[in-house]
Design a protein that fits this description.
The structure holds two protein chains of two kinds. By secondary structure, chain A is mainly α. Chain A contains 14 helices and two strands. By secondary structure, chain B is an alpha+beta fold. The chains are: A mainly alpha, B alpha+beta.
């Protein structure tokens, strides 16, 4: 805490905090309020007498109904959920094993390999989608969920590997040595001791990987084309912005409903998540 | 039950040679302590016995088996680590059961062994707790319990007491000693604390820079150190050393330094005569120096000025300057001495040590 006079606390702590919270939360508020405002209010000109952008007295579910009745939104949710889950699981599986190997097995060039994996994470997706599109086309995976399930790990695996490598390095190696003296093979020591201890780290990388693939836009835009294959971010933006007409109500309803699963995942694991990021292993 | 023998054991990490040609026979049921300053190779040696570190060259036998290539799990050993290495996600009972489960013991047998070990260590009430709910001493006991239930051929201890506070350390030291008497299992114990080494070990190995300096029973190391390093490392307060020149004085050899001339008795004189004219270190333990009386022969006496008086209650430590040499003497607690007093001190001739200045080996 900031010590000293009250004005110092306000200037250096409270006011910055309030500003920060406002900047973070206002878009969510805007999203929520837009979802529930009727079209009549949404498209009212700013100089109208009863212009009231931040509140509504006539909340409505019309945009949400529109989303489910007039678009494939439910399908998009299912697509996104399936793609995000499967690509997260693949990436976690590879990331945990690779992270463990890089952190614990002394093999030649382990350090260089770790750096190389990190560098692949730095290649921007906006460049990578061009060669990937070629690959997807050659394997005839275009316009199927597998186009995304197999391409998302290209950035999720390096990410998970690095996070897990750091986490595994923070686990005292005596734990594993003790298990091996106790009669466990390296494999069993990993399954029974190291992985249970690393659960917070695994959850953290899983949550972040899930969020990254849930929100991913460019690959989903390029590799999927038919409306019933799309994911939420692409579906909402491509079907609810027609030309220069923005269907603000359904757009925001889509954004709101689309962010709920991620919010649930975060709140469910928040404790593990924080201790995972701070790398605490209680001895 | 097993002997452990190390033969020409070497370990190199890249270019650093951390363990050099260690030869050692650890007897069945013996409590062997490795002691030395940090980086002396004692822990690496222990880890090679455990199989956690590959051997560069040499041979390790446990019982009659060469275990060079045997994985840790098949060496029939149990190890207690400095940081205890308790599995944080398991209860105390599961921690102790893990090694037995891995070895596919019957459930009833596992339970029996856990209860037995828990009652030996007095941790019955902790069996359902998680490691993070335990104090340092309790964790230490659980780590011991985990080793005991395995009923291994050899116990390995890697500085198990160094994370405990001073009082608890003394207490656990006694318990370890009792435990060893009760279980009578060959034990190898690594520590940097010479008091632990002296009190626990049936025999003690002193190491420095990867080389074994001396192996022997605690009092053997104390009374007849093989070289200057062992002499200085074992014993607290440490042995006094004075840089002297060995000279001949009227037919008998003496050790001479500026402001100091000490006669050399019997056998020591004979050995010193061969090195006349050479430089050496004269060693004498603080308790072997006392205030001179009429009974002390003049050639074993010297003048010293007291610089600091340390009252310890059971004894007084006098930090003194004798010529160019600084010495500590341990004297009777009843003695009234003050700083800057000039005293005539005497030493016990039979307790004198001489070390070659170049090789540092005992003369």
């Amino acid at each position: 805490m900031i010590e000293g006079a009250a004005w110092r606390r306000w200037v250096f702590f409270n006011i910055p905090l309030i500003l920060f919270v406002f900047v973070l939360l206002f878009p969510f508020y805007w999203m929520i309020i837009t979802t529930f405002r009727p079209d009549g209010e949404l498209y009212r000109p700013w100089n109208a007498v009863n212009y009231m952008p931040f509140w509504t007295n006539n909340p409505t579910f019309e945009h949400i109904f529109y989303l489910f009745e007039e678009t494939n939104f439910a399908r998009w949710m299912l697509n996104t959920m399936f793609i995000a889950l499967v690509s997260t699981l693949i990436s976690l599986f590879c990331g945990v094993l690779a992270g463990y190997a890089l952190a614990r097995l002394n093999f030649p060039y382990a350090g260089g390999l770790g750096t190389a994996i990190f560098i692949t994470y730095l290649v921007p997706q906006t460049l990578l989608f061009i060669p990937l599109a070629e690959i997807i086309r050659n394997f005839k995976l275009g316009d199927t969920p597998w186009a995304l399930i197999l391409t998302y790990p290209t950035f999720l695996i390096p990410f998970c590997t690095w996070l897990m490598m750091g986490y595994f390095k923070a686990i005292p190696k005596e734990l594993e040595e003790c298990a091996r003296i106790d009669g466990a093979s390296r494999w069993k020591a990993m399954i029974y001791i190291i992985i249970p201890v690393a659960v917070p780290g695994i959850l953290s990388s899983g949550i972040i990987a899930f969020t990254l693939s849930w929100n991913e836009f460019i690959y989903a835009l390029v590799f999927l084309s038919s409306p019933d294959q799309k994911t939420v971010p692409v579906g909402v933006t491509s079907e609810l912005i027609r030309g220069d007409v923005f269907f603000w109500g359904p757009l925001m309803a889509g954004a709101l409903l689309g962010s709920i699963p991620v919010a649930i995942v975060y709140s469910f694991f928040v404790e593990h998540y924080v201790s995972g990021l701070t790398g605490s292993v209680k001895g | 039950m097993a002997e452990v023998s190390l033969h020409k054991l070497n370990k190199k990490f890249d270019t650093t040679h951390v363990v050099k040609d260690v030869d050692l026979q650890i007897r069945d049921k013996e409590f062997m302590v490795f002691v030395g300053p940090s980086g002396c190779g004692k822990t690496t040696t222990l880890r090679m016995i455990a199989g956690l570190e590959a051997i560069t060259s040499g041979e390790i036998r446990i019982g009659n088996t060469v275990v060079n290539e045997v994985p840790p799990m098949d060496r029939d050993i149990a190890m207690v680590f400095q940081n205890y290495a308790l599995y944080p996600h398991m209860s105390v009972a599961s921690n102790m059961a893990f090694g037995l489960k891995m070895r596919k013991f019957e459930k009833a047998e596992i339970e029996k062994r856990i209860n037995n070990a828990a009652s030996i260590l007095g941790i019955e009430s902790l069996l359902h707790r998680k490691p993070r709910q335990l104090s340092g001493g309790q964790r230490q006991r659980v780590a011991l319990g985990r080793a005991i239930v395995r009923d291994p051929a050899v116990f390995l201890f890697d500085e198990p007491l160094s994370n405990l506070d001073a009082k608890l350390r003394v207490q656990m030291r006694v318990e370890l000693k009792k435990l060893h008497e009760r279980l009578a299992v060959t034990s190898v114990y690594v520590t940097h604390d010479q008091v632990e080494a002296m009190t626990l070990g049936d025999r003690v190995v002193v190491m420095k820079d990867g080389v074994v300096q001396q192996v022997g029973e605690p009092l053997e190391l104390y009374n007849t150190p093989a070289n200057r390093f062992v002499a200085g490392f074992i014993g607290s307060p440490a042995m006094n050393f004075a840089d002297v020149t060995l000279v001949e004085n009227g037919g008998s050899p003496v050790a001479e330094a500026p402001g100091l001339r000490i006669g050399l008795p019997g056998a020591l004189a004979t050995r010193a005569r061969a090195k006349t004219g050479r430089k050496a270190s004269l060693g004498i333990r603080p308790e072997d120096i006392h205030i001179a009386t009429a009974a002390d022969a003049p050639e074993y006496c010297f003048e010293a000025e007291v610089e600091v008086v340390e009252q310890l209650g059971s004894e007084i430590l006098l930090d003194m300057r004798a010529g160019g040499a600084l010495m500590v003497a341990s004297v009777e607690p009843t003695l009234r001495v003050r700083a800057h007093d000039k005293l005539k001190m005497a030493l016990k001739p039979e307790r004198l040590h001489l070390f070659d200045a170049e090789t540092e080996a005992a003369i």
